[in-house]
Each structure stands twice: as C-alpha cells, then as structure tokens.
Amino acid sequence: MTDIERETDRRLERTILDLLDSRAPTASICPSDAARAVYEGDDDGWRALMEPARRAARRLVAAGEVEITQAGRPVEPAKARGPIRIRRIR
What mean pLDDT do residues 72-82 have? Predict the structure, then answer.
C-alpha cells in the first residue's frame, strides 16, 4: 500500500465519522457519501473510492465506532453483499 492510499484510507475514516457527527444520532450514510466528499474532482471519479470507503467502514466497525446495516438491521461486515449503510452504534 502506498502512502497516498494510506492517507486516502485515513481521510475516508475521518469523513465517515464527520458525516455521521453532522447528522442526527439515528441517521445513517451511504459509503458513496464519504467517497464523494473525499474525491477532489468534478466527475464521477469518486466511484473508484467506493470499495476503499466500504473497507474504511469495516475498519470502523472493528474499532467499535460504527455498524454496517442492510435493510435497517446491523450485519456482519464480511457477510454484507450489495448496498450498505453506515451508522453509529446504537
């Protein structure tokens, strides 16, 4: 992993937490919210950050900061397939 990739990972983690802090305590975000916030271009290059954003969310789950949900219910990150949401642990 390069220094740039590590920095992007850290920025995604911080952005996920910042986005959640700026919303209601019960709100959730999509990984694309973080990817779009971190991406610095005007095109759809943020899409390349989707998997890194999902990985950042999984690291935050492991750290006890957030949970990943599908259909409004917490799921094990390794078992999540398809669209996910990220929220603070309730």
Answer: 93
- CA 75 to centroid of chain Cα atoms: 14
pTM over 0.85: yes
d(CA 16, CA 47): 16
Residue 40 to residues 2, 12, 48, 53, Cα–Cα distance (Å): 18, 13, 12, 15
What pLDDT does residue 1 have?
Answer: 85
28 φ, ψ (degrees, to nearest 5): -130, 165
Residue 90 has pLDDT above 90, yes or no: no
Q: Rounded to the nearest 5 degrees, what angle is found at the Cα of 57, between the Cα atoms of 89 and 72? A: 50
Residues 7, 56: contact at Cβ < 8 Å? Answer: no
